[in-house]
Amino acid sequence: MESTVDGLRGEYRRLTSAEVKAMIRSFRQEQGIKRAALAADANMSEKTLERAEGGQGISEDSCRRIARALGLQEDVFVGEKAGMGQTMKLCNNMLSATAMAASCEMMVMGVKAGLDPAVMVDVINAGSGANTAVRDKFPKSIMTGGFDYGFYTGLMYKDVRVCMEEGEALGVPLPVSSAVHQMWVMANQVNGAGSDFTEIVKIIEGWAGVEVRNKKK
């Protein structure tokens, strides 16, 4: 497909966050805009744009046109205040990190009790406990033993840590998030920042003495 936004002409495809940032910088320079912010994250970079502050600024309509030009499937205008996109990103990523950590505990417990992890995935995804960890991460990267989902433990730990700092700065108690933070601190230290973030399950598997893997046929 071809972009029709000034400064972003040519063929486009699904881009990495680094490529998106480079294109935004190019667009900003050509238009004489001093600052443009894109909420860049494995989950939110495709959905959230934050309006720029300072200089000429970027209107909501411009943000949406940039999103469409980059091939983003959805665009959500978060707000005009600087930092709102970052806060939205942190909220989303903390929920993702929480789902991942809690799902690891439950999947390991189920396997320890004798449940088939494939059956657990089907039942959970059809019920109120459904989340992206069980829907995507377990079947694609954990149960296969590949641990190749493509997101670093260090990056997840960083997002969780920054979210905790933001909560403290805003005066918002985060007791549940604090427990999640401790799990990701452990994952970062034990598995290493360069490990795939799905490897957090290995810590709980080690404690329980079982592995959440597909049953051999």
What structural keywords apply?
single chain, 217 residues, mainly alpha, 3-stranded mixed β-sheet, 54% helix
Structure description:
Helix 3 crosses helix 7, helix 4 runs antiparallel to helix 5 and helix 6 runs antiparallel to helix 7. Helices cover 54% and strands 5% of the residues. It has a three-stranded mixed beta sheet, sandwiched between helices. Strands 1-2 form a two-stranded antiparallel ribbon. It is built from eight helices and five strands. 31% of the residues are buried. With 217 residues, the protein is mainly alpha-helical. It is globular and about 55 Å long. The chain folds into two domains: 79 residues; 124 residues, Orthogonal Bundle (N-(1-d-carboxylethyl)-l-norvaline Dehydrogenase, domain 2), CATH 1.10.1040. The N terminus is likely disordered.
Short description:
This protein is mostly helical and 217 residues long. The chain has helices at residues 17-31, 60-69, 84-112, 117-125, 132-142, 153-170, 175-190, 200-208; strands spanning 2-3, 10-11, 37-38, 48-50, 76-77. 54% of the residues lie in helices and 5% in strands.
